[in-house]
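Purpose: get a first structural picture of the assembly so the mutagenesis plan has something to point at.
Setup: two entries, given in the order below. No constraints added.
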Amino acid sequence: MNNHAGDSGSPDARPREEKVASLDAWVSAALPGAVAYATSLAGRRADGEDVVQDCICRLLRHADRYDLPQDGRKLLFRSITNACLNLKRRRRPPLHLSELGRADEDGPWEIEDNSAPSPPLELLTDELRVTIAEGLAQLPVRYRAAIELTSLGYKPREIAEMLEVNSNHVRVVLGRARKSLAAFLSSRFPE
Amino acid sequence: MSDPSRFSDDRVDALVRSYLGDDAGRVDLEANLQAVQARLEKMRSGESVNRRRPAFRKGVRWAMSLAAVLLVAGGTAYFVLDPTPTSAYSIMVAASDALTPGSDRCYRIDIAARGDRFKKHPILRNIAGALVWTRGDRFYLDSAGDHRKPEDGRQFIMGQDENHKIWVVGSGNRGLRYNRGEVPPILGALRSTLNLDLEKLSKQFLQHFDLEIEAPGPQDDPKTVVLRATIKPDHDPMAINGARLTIERNSNVIRKLELSRTLDGATLGTVTFTLVGAEPQADSSYRLESHLPPGAEILSHDQAAERGKALRSLLAQ
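Result (structure tokens, whole complex):
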């Protein structure tokens, strides 16, 4: 996170009330999505909320170093990812790097074109929602992080920073996560 | 047969995004804002954070929503918009944050004893004005270090290593080492006096002491602020019942710490630590061996009787 400390540039000279309102709006806007992501990674709502509350407080405490309304979402998701990975590490044996596979064994992997429009959101039925949750839950936490962060618009390079692996690994993990989730969904919803 | 190709990468991504968006809509925003505010308040006061979500009735959530937003705004304003701490607690939190765990610090020690409880020990007279190096709960003192001449000409060297073993350099360059549970009372009292674990102590100030900013006097350096810490009323007696901390405003570095020490509820005296250096020290400097000539004898648990004799001899000099 310190890498971003200098990104915010010179100290913000906006009036106090404006800064407070801006930060407050940022917290309110970022929190629900962050909790949903953290819950999915942590596996439990209570843990997800705990992680997010902690990460938000830490960011707010050092808010003078960052432009949170501008950069905060990325910093927050990075913090959440780290916290959830640590949470998982404490609960069970760590995922060995070899589980991520070699970068070139499943390739070639496409570089995402972020200028392309995102596919439209689907209206989820309860059954589909529960099935996606089950499908995500059966993925290793790093796979889950990769596919969820990608769906939220993060680039492989950014995800690689969060997971502390290289971009090629992210593409491998993402490919496997998509394939695994697609297989799971198609097994639950046969034509 | 199921066909995974029905779920293209784009569709899988879209489904995951829809799932996360749907779940985000189920998050109880007000409860979480309330919890964030509670955490900010606790961080501000230095308490450990209770990781439970506050419970409240659904019927009052709408009202708490507005309150929570306003409270969070207040909390964020506190941390964000006032980079220069203004309350005693925020100054103490900033000073605690500024401490780098595991770093070496050197302090000059001054002792102002009430009555003669300190004065009856020649060793304590001898260490007054000496320099003590600390790293976490490790420390070492050499009363003749830094070209200093002890008051009565006797050199006294003592420390605590990374295994919490107390050691002393005895007469004839023999080393005396003590495990936990076998430290003689006089050395225990010295350890208590010399050991300045600031990381631990600063947390104790935040948790167990009332803090206030002392009004600056004409002689005070305007670049520093002085905090007075007084043990909370009705708190169980502690080895320190009060303190006066001189903290640099810009760096939040604790320059001077005056500790009021107690024994059996009575004030023993004031021990003042003044920061004089922070150069990194070798790990070995906190060990007995580095203060002895090569091959010197070290008396430990197995030579308890001889070790006791050597300590009595040292103290009787």
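The mean pLDDT of chain B is 79.
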